[in-house]
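$ ./design --mode recover --in tokens.txt
reading tokens...
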């Protein structure tokens, strides 16, 4: 159970970092679709 909780915490931390990177990075050019 402790391993699972640690894994979940790691996953949420990664998602949060991705969000912050997305929010703080300059907006990339829009995809030409």
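writing sequence...
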């Amino acid at each position: 159970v402790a391993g699972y909780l640690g894994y979940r915490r790691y996953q949420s931390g990664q998602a949060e970092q991705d969000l912050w990177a997305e929010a703080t990075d300059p907006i990339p050019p829009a995809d030409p679709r």
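exit 0
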